[in-house]
Design brief:
Elements lengths: L1 E7 L3 H13 L5 E4 L8 H4 L4 E2 L9 H11 L6 H20 L14 E2 L9 E2 L5 H14 L4 E4 L2 E7 L19 E6 L4 E12 L10 E2 L8 H8 L4 E2 L4 E8 L6 E2 L6 H4 L3 E3 L7 H4 L8 H15 L4 E4 L5 H7 L1 H9 L9 E10 L2 E3 L11 E3 L4 E2 L12 H19 L24 H17 L3 E2 L1 H24 L4 H22 L8 E2 L15
Parallel strand pairs: 1-2, 1-9, 2-6, 9-18, 10-13, 17-19, 20-21
Antiparallel strand pairs: 3-5, 4-5, 7-8, 8-9, 11-17, 12-16, 14-15, 15-16
Helix pairs in contact: 1-5, 1-12, 3-4, 4-12, 6-15, 10-11, 13-14, 13-15, 14-15
Bound molecules: flavin-adenine dinucleotide and succinic acid (SIN).
Length: 532
């Protein structure tokens, strides 16, 4: 199959880019591929909203820029921060024009929320299901574009480059080029190739590398892993953001339900098991300090009191007001016997967001020609060492636009390579025991959670690396000899992502933002990005 524009991923990043390309080129072929259904994305689970300047009387670009830089702890690229914050309002208006609805006051002004690290109320939201609303609106708009083809259950295995033509490709090869991808068609179980002029990686996050995460099961870091295999540049993978307040349900592992930070923005207060508020001990901004600080404070409080959670107290917030902004959270809590008007909500940190990823320039270009990346899988320089809450959806739409500009400007000069070799599956057979894959995944998640969590040190990182090496060796053998399955491909990708997180963490000899290493508790004077 061939296409002009290939998009891997149907979250906010992939869909925004597709809609823009389709508006400009209604007769060129645009193909979106997803590994399950089109709406199963991190985007769908976003709660808090989109941070964007909306109330110039009480807010400004300068304040949003400053908040982003402070959260990023000295590692943001200021030029990129300015681009995202200043281009944000125009991009948000576009998704509103495509049909996304944000909550309004009776008088017609937008209701603005607040989250950790923000100095003003600036977060547009749709109750506590902002992502679901955006995903709904964008998918509906896509349906009206006859030149966009969405292919579900189509798992991208690898990016096709000169390597597949038999050339030696290394990190120092100049002009590595992307010609398209190999996919595992989950309906036929065949490996097929899709050749494209321009390819966008919009594969989202990698929270599933950890035992407990707010991310759905699709978030396995596939895009980062495949670009790394193709010898593209990957940056700052050590900065994994743990959301301070995932719902704690004893015995529940994997996908944890999020209690949005906007609840604290509306007055929710954290308390320890003795009912004491504790954030004042850690930061003058208390419950609304940036996420790295709140997550570390909770971690420390849990360790000090020997508990598996702390509590979010919303009892004073008023039932009507709470239900108006957070109906989904109210219902979820009630469904497990927590009445937020009488009971505190048990919460604990969970892996939430990858600040690093595929390194891009200001036009979303990766180090591989004709390959773009945007959304959570990309490292644009916006987040630095810690993402400011609700800046992710904003970054995705601003960079989807920038990728669109560059890709459409240059597509006419880009040839399709129509003679790529087929996938070679010789010598492979069905794996005898699928359970081996599941066991290895559990081991990986355990290693990452126990040794590469919120607080790290050199011994733990070293242990993690040794264990990941072993898992890598065993999984490679399985990969070389087995017919491919999504479970095996995801495991292989997650092992690569785990490796990239640990390796980057070992290179960073300091504590900064989300990376806290007790062997180097201070920030170094050397401000650097770790690029692998
Ligand atoms: P996603 O929306 O995750 O989409 C990924 C796509 O890639 C999917 O279609 C998937 O099928 C596809 N894909 C992946 N791998 C493959 C493969 N191998 N082959 C084919 N397809 C593949 N951010 C904010 O700014 N505000 C918020 O309020 C907010 N709340 C959040 C709440 C939760 C619970 C979570 C988990 C995240 C939240 N975030 C929030 C972060 C934000 O939602 C994500 O960073 C963002 O939605 C990512 O969008 P994306 O388009 O990059 O990827
Ligand atoms: C939340 O709603 O707390 C999540 C917001 C985000 O991750 O940006």
């Amino acid at each position: 199959m061939t296409t002009d524009f290939l998009i891997i991923g149907s979250g906010i990043a992939g869909l925004t880019y597709a809609l823009k390309v389709s508006e400009k080129y209604p007769y060129k072929k645009i193909t979106i591929i997803t590994k399950t259904t089109a709406d199963e994305t991190n985007t769908k689970y976003a709660q808090g909203g989109v941070a964007v300047l909306n109330d110039p009387e009480h807010d400004s670009f300068e304040k949003h820029i400053e908040d982003t830089l402070i959260a990023g702890d000295g590692l943001c690229n200021q030029h990129i921060v300015e681009i995202v914050v200043k281009e944000g309002p125009e991009r948000v208006n576009e998704i509103i024009e495509w049909g996304a609805k944000f909550d309004k006051e009776v008088g017609g002004d937008y209701k603005l929320g607040k989250e950790g690290g923000h100095s003003a109320f600036r977060i547009l939201h749709h109750k506590d299901i902002t992502g679901r609303e955006i995903e709904r609106a964008l998918l509906a708009a896509i349906k009206d574009c006859s030149n966009i083809h969405v292919i579900n259950y189509c798992f991208v295995v690898d990016i096709i480059t000169q390597h597949h033509l038999g050339f030696l490709v290394t990190k120092s090869t100049p002009d590595i080029e992307c010609y398209g991808v190999y996919v595992l068609n989950l309906k036929t179980n065949q490996i097929e190739k899709i050749l494209a002029r321009k390819t966008l990686v919009a594969t989202g996050g990698n929270g599933q590398v950890y035992r407990t995460t707010t991310n759905p099961s699709i978030a396995t870091g596939d895009g980062v892993a495949m670009v790394y295999r193709a010898k593209g540049r990957i940056e700052n993978m050590e900065f994994i953001q743990f959301h301070p307040t995932a719902l704690y349900e004893p015995g529940v592992r994997g996908h944890a339900f999020l209690i949005t930070e906007a609840v604290r923005g509306d007055g929710g207060v954290l308390r320890n098991k003795d009912g004491e508020t504790f954030m004042g001990k850690y930061d003058s901004r208390k419950d609304l300090a940036p996420r790295d600080i709140v997550a570390r404070a909770i971690d420390s409080e849990m360790k000090r009191t020997g508990t598996e959670c702390v509590y979010l107290d919303c009892r004073h917030m008023g039932k009507e007001k709470f239900i108006e902004h957070f109906p989904n959270i109210y219902e979820k809590c009630l469904s497990i016997g927590i009445d937020i008007t009488k009971d505190m909500i048990p919460v604990a940190p969970a892996a939430h967001y990858s600040c690093g990823g595929i390194k891009t320039d200001e036009w979303g270009r990766t180090s591989i020609k004709n390959l773009y990346a945007c959304g959570e899988c990309a490292s644009t320089g916006l987040h630095g060492a810690n993402r400011l809450a609700s800046n992710s959806l904003l970054e995705a739409i601003v960079f989807a636009h920038r990728c669109f500009i560059d890709a459409t400007d240059t597509v006419a000069l880009t040839d399709l390579k129509e003679t790529m070799p087929d996938w070679n599956a010789r010598g492979t057979s069905e794996p005898k025991e699928m359970i081996l894959i599941t066991q290895s995944l559990k081991e990986l998640q355990l290693v990452m959670s126990d040794y590469v969590g919120i607080v790290r040190n050199d011994i733990r990182l070293h242990r993690a690396l040794r264990r990941i090496d072993l898992l890598w060796e065993e999984t490679e053998l399985l990969y070389q000899t087995s017919t491919l399955s999504p479970q095996l491909l995801e495991l292989r990708n997650m092992i690569s992502v785990g490796y990239l997180i640990v390796k980057s963490a070992t290179f960073r000899k300091e504590s900064r933002g989300l990376h806290y290493n007790t062997d180097y508790p201070a920030k170094s004077n050397l401000v650097q990005n770790i690029v692998l």
